[in-house]
Write a structure and sequence with these properties.
single chain; 279 residues; D-Maltodextrin-Binding Protein, domain 2; 2 domains; five-stranded mixed β-sheet; three-stranded parallel β-sheet; 13 strands; globular
C-alpha cells in the first residue's frame, strides 16, 4: 500500500475515535467478550454467494476462506467452532450490521479503506488484494482505457465501486447481489465486471470464455476482520489471535483447504495470504 494511503487510513481512524465516546461505552455492554461468552455464541457476518471466500454449499453449510477463519475464531473464543451464528451479508451492508449491533465481527472479504475506518474498527489483516476486471474473451479488457465509453459492472459498496466511480468516461452498472452481477456479465450488460482480483480470478477459472486481463487496478490493499467502532477489547483480542495463528501458518492452511482448488497449483499463496497480521 502507498505511504499516502497508510497515512490517510491512520488519520481517519484517529479522527473517528474522537467521536466514539459515550456510544462506545454503551455498546461495550452488549458486544464485549464477556457478553459474547455469556451468550454462548459469537455472531459473525459472512457472505452467502461469494466463493471461494464465503458461500453456502448445496447442503446449506457455510464454506470459504472467511468462514474457515470465522470457525477457528469461534473455537479460540468459546472452545467450539460450532458456537457461531453466521449472519449472511451483502457488501454494502457490512458496516451497517456492525453499527446496528447485529454482529460482533465481520469476516466478509472486507478491504480496509480510510472511509470505512471512520465507521468501524479494523483488526490486523489476514489477506490482501487489488481490483481486477473480468471480461469476455471476445471483447477483452486489458487496460483501464479499454473501459472508456463503455459499461462496467460493479457490486454496490465495494472498493471497485468506489474506485471506478471516480473515473470519468465509464458508465457503472451497479448490483447489490454478487450473483446478479455475474449473471449480468454473462448476459452482456457490461463489457466487464470489477471486483477484488482474487474473486474475479476464481470466477474466471470456473467460467470458460472469461478471463482477467486487467488485474492490478489501484493499490494492493489489506483485507481484515472488523468490529463495531470503539470495541477495542474485541479488536485487540482478534489481533492477538491472528498473531498466535500466524505462528502455525494458519492462513496457509486455510488457503490450501478453501482457495487452492479455485486458483490451482500455479498460484503462490504468499501473494495473497497474510500471516500473523503482518501486512
Amino acid at each position: 500500500m502507498k505511504v499516502s494511503r497508510l497515512v490517510a487510513l491512520f488519520a481517519a481512524t484517529a479522527a473517528a475515535t474522537l467521536f466514539s465516546g459515550a456510544a462506545s461505552a454503551a455498546g461495550q455492554a452488549n458486544d464485549s467478550i464477556a457478553a459474547i461468552k455469556a451468550r454462548g455464541t459469537v455472531k459473525i457476518a459472512v457472505f452467502s454467494d461469494k466463493p471461494p471466500f464465503g458461500f453456502v454449499d448445496k447442503f446449506g453449510k457455510n464454506q470459504g476462506y472467511d468462514v474457515y477463519f470465522a470457525r477457528r475464531f469461534a473455537k479460540e473464543l468459546l472452545g467450539d467452532e460450532n458456537k457461531i451464528e453466521f449472519v449472511l451479508v451483502e457488501p454494502a451492508a457490512r458496516v451497517d450490521v456492525l453499527e446496528s449491533g447485529r454482529v460482533d465481527i465481520v469476516f466478509a472479504n472486507f478491504t480496509v479503506t480510510p472511509e470505512r475506518a471512520k465507521r468501524v474498527d479494523f483488526a490486523k489483516p489476514y489477506f490482501k488484494t487489488a481490483i481486477g476486471v473480468v471480461s469476455n474473451d471476445s471483447t477483452p479488457i486489458a487496460k483501464e482505457g479499454d473501459l472508456q465509453g463503455k459499461k462496467l459492472i460493479v457490486i454496490r459498496g465495494t472498493t471497485a465501486d468506489v474506485y471506478f466511480s471516480k473515473v470519468k468516461g465509464i458508465e457503472l452498472v451497479k448490483y447489490d447481489q454478487i450473483g446478479d452481477a455475474f449473471q449480468a456479465l454473462r448476459d452482456g450488460r457490461g463489457v466487464g465486471l470489477a471486483q477484488d482480483t482474487t474473486l474475479v480470478l476464481a470466477w474466471a477459472n470456473e467460467n470458460k470464455g472469461f478471463s482477467v486481463k486487467l488485474g492490478d487496478v489501484g493499490d494492493v490493499e489489506p483485507i481484515a476482520p472488523a468490529v463495531r467502532k470503539g470495541n477495542t477489547e474485541l479488536r485487540d483480542w482478534i489481533n492477538a489471535t491472528l498473531v498466535k495463528l500466524g505462528k502455525e501458518r494458519f492462513a496457509h492452511t486455510a488457503y490450501d483447504a478453501t482457495l487452492k482448488p479455485y486458483y490451482g497449483a500455479n498460484t503462490n499463496p504468499d501473494d495473497l495470504v497474510v500471516e500473523g497480521g503482518a501486512f
